[in-house]
Write a structure and sequence with these properties.
With 266 residues, this protein is α+β, with helices and mostly antiparallel strands. It is 32% helix and 15% strand. The protein is built from 8 helices and 12 strands. The strands form 5 sheets. A 4-stranded antiparallel beta sheet has the order 3-4-10-5, with helices on both faces. Strands 1-2 form a two-stranded antiparallel sheet. Strand 1 and strand 2 form a beta hairpin. One of its GO terms (molecular function) is metal ion binding. It comes from Hydrogenispora ethanolica. This is 4Fe-4S ferredoxin-type domain-containing protein.
Length: 266
């Protein structure tokens, strides 16, 4: 059965629209995510091997064909948070309740969507695996063996911000998921070259970061992680922050920059 990326996007959109996991009963049925963005990368793209470099992710990062023998395509999606989730988290200070639900219940929705795409591809006669849901998925020193953000960059979904979030045409406030498959799809063209091409380096995320983990050089993951641990201790079983993704120019679009005047999302 022939499948195009548009077919997969239609499946994802329908699932996001209809799944009860995209609603929070405790918050008056609040929707967590808006319609997803999808992109595709060739499994043989040399940038995947580049992620094994120490300055990227590390030697422990697995390539698409280590996740699935015979892999041809990596499908990546971005789930933008709804306006309600984003707006609630704009005030400085502790994370909003809406954001905490978006981070934890939203990740359950994210995982469920990746499983739905795997089921759809399998039903169509293809092999597929969602690395984030695979038993081989592991995190070492806060670095996983499959970085959704880096994979999304390779697939053409967006570039990194100063806070190390991914800036897409729907902004940076959201979640990322991916599926590796032996279905062959045309790679999405990357509309950028530099890792941070969509970032204006305005510094807005620096002053919004509660633990001061961000400076002009980037984000200190250890400081950020320690703060999230404290948030978890306070709000268990939920945690999150997201202040660097909300109340900033890249919250819901690609900000206008001197390097890319008139970029998508202006």
């Amino acid at each position: 059965m022939s499948i195009a990326l548009d077919d997969l996007e239609a499946v994802a959109r329908k699932y996001i629209q209809e799944s009860p996991l995209n609603r929070v009963p405790a918050l008056d049925g609040m929707r967590i995510f808006e319609a997803p963005l999808l992109a595709a990368a060739g499994a043989a793209d040399p940038l995947f091997e580049g992620l094994k470099a120490a300055e990227a992710v590390g030697a422990h990062h697995l390539s698409p064909r280590q996740w699935l023998e015979g892999a041809r395509t990596v499908i990546v999606y971005f789930l933008p948070f709804t306006g309600r989730v984003r707006e609630a988290n704009r005030p400085l200070g502790l994370p909003a309740t809406e954001w905490l639900y978006g981070r934890i219940e939203g990740e359950q929705m994210n995982c469920s969507l990746s499983e739905r795409l795997v089921q759809y591809l399998t039903a169509c006669g293809y092999q597929a695996v969602a690395p984030g849901r695979d038993e081989r998925f592991a995190v070492r020193d806060r670095r996983s063996n499959w970085s959704e953000r880096h994979v999304a960059f390779i697939a053409g979904l967006g570039t990194f911000s100063l806070s190390r979030s991914l800036i897409t045409r729907s902004g940076s406030a959201g979640r990322i998921g991916s599926v590796v498959t032996d279905l062959e799809l045309p790679p999405t063209q990357r509309a950028y070259e530099a890792l941070d091409e969509y970032c204006s380096r305005c510094g807005a995320c620096i002053v919004r970061c509660p633990p001061l983990a961000i400076d002009e050089q980037g984000k200190d993951n250890a400081i950020c992680g320690a703060y999230l641990d404290r948030v978890l201790a306070r709000y268990r079983p939920r945690y999150g922050c997201g202040k660097c993704q909300t109340g900033v120019p890249c919250e819901s679009k690609i900000p206008v920059t001197a390097r890319r005047a008139g970029a998508a999302g202006e």
